[in-house]
Amino acid sequence: MKILCFVEPGDELSQQALGLAQALGDVRAVTVDGAYQPAAWAKAIAAEPADAIVAAGSDRGNELLAHVAAITGQPFAANVTAVDGDVVTRVRWGGSLLEEARLHGSPKILTVAPHTQPAVAAVAADVLTAPDDGSPKVIERIEESGGGVSLRDAKVVVSGGRGVGSAEGFSIIEELAGLLGGAVGCSRVVTSAGWRPHTDQVGQTGTKISADLYVACGISGATQHIAGCKGAKTILAINDDPEAPILTHADYAVIGNLHEIVPAISAELRKVKG
Amino acid sequence: MRILVCVKRVPITGGRIVLTDDEQAIQSRHLGFTISPHEECAVEEAVRIVEAGGGETVVLTLGPAEAEEQLRDCMAVGADRGILLKTDGADRDAQSTAAAIVDAVREEEPFDLILFGNESADAGGYQVGIRVAHALGLPVVTGLKKIEPADGRVRVERDVGGARDVYDVPMPAVLTVLEGLNLPRYPSVPGRLRAKSKPLSVNEPAPPAQGLEKLRLVLPPGQGKQAEVLGEGPAAAPKVVELMQRLGVA
After folding, report:
1. Which pLDDT tens digit goes with each residue over B58-110?
2. How many angstroms separate the CA atoms of A172 and A177, rounded?
3. Which fold has domain A2-128?
4. Would you call B94 and A39 a contact, using CB atoms and an 8 Å cutoff?
5. Domain map of chain A by residue range?
6. Which ipTM was obtained for this model?
7. How far is A98 from chain B (nearest CA, A)?
């Protein structure tokens, strides 16, 4: 099998995709030069001979291979975790559910679900050129002023859910996050209520975190939320309901009123740190 | 402006997913239904654009007869009419979904914008909008958190981890959006009443062969874990701090 693997230089997810690609056959890594222009880049990728085309299940990887699939008229399986002949296992519901599916057609087009494969060493990639075909391309990049710790990269995320009760209630969450040098997160209920901006949302349709510690305060643990926090190494739930679903995903729990427990933890931290 | 918004009926899964005995679907007997979160923002955005500049918002779904409920929900928050592409309820893959949408769009007067969620909450295929755009020969930009139409063009922005990429494309165009684009309104009681009498057209596209053929659904490993309870109430604080020190974060 000749496998064409799209990679982005220095991208960890690309190296994970490469790992799965190498298990499928002889890999030729390719990348594309110049300003990002998805449809034009996809045209360049689709023009290369291959039995299968693989990329990372990143924003860009999923977008590019969807274009390749549309151009070639082939099926496309996004966020695959395993391949067995024609049958792929892929992620649904942000990872709360898996699907086994037969991927028909040729070339086989698939992306690799993030953090489901070990990364392998980067290989030299052939650089393809994508002539400007007039399709949409990036005309400007606006850098955002980096205020505080980013949710995606934070070592500690302290997050609040419905149980926090109000926008003002988040002051104790902010205090604890600040003491730990971490970021503040929240559940979808909280952003829908307008208590916090959507940029704070941890979840399937928010940010997917990879913190060392995730502290979930007053969060019941809907699948939508778990999809965003399951990448954390350790999850501590603070909840007044010992039967909340979050406790079946958390490593540790404290049962009780978060409005008493969270300030107590902050006070204890101050005491220990002197 | 004439705007089409494509949405998908999905179950509200809550805290725990249970599969049907045939492993083909989520057991939804006791669940409510909604549309994917990204699509709620797509509907809201279309309604706001039309409120500001006039025109029409049409909402389309491919799904079972029951998906009329989701179209009415969208009409309750301001969509003007609905198109139901009725199926027997079995899943259709992204390719056949896109083909059915393309056929339906060709039956209509041209739209200035066709909006999708970036990916559906359930299948997460990341491709229907892109396929529709290619089939119709329209430009497409995905994953958007800002949409500003003006003078036959649309300026859009996409988050790319700490920065925003800007695109400027001519209309008609296909755009896929992300939650956070706006804060969708709740339906009002008069809105719900009006939605009942808004026009709904129904078509039944034939089920084609599936290129990505679902065999079965599987729950991922690691179900049924149980957290170790460190304690109850504020008295547990010292144990929590010990844990934080052990993890090297405090």
Report:
1. 999 999 999 999 999 999 999 999 999 999 999 999 999 999 999 999 999 99
2. 9
3. Rossmann fold (3.40.50)
4. no
5. 2-128, 156-273
6. 0.96
7. 5
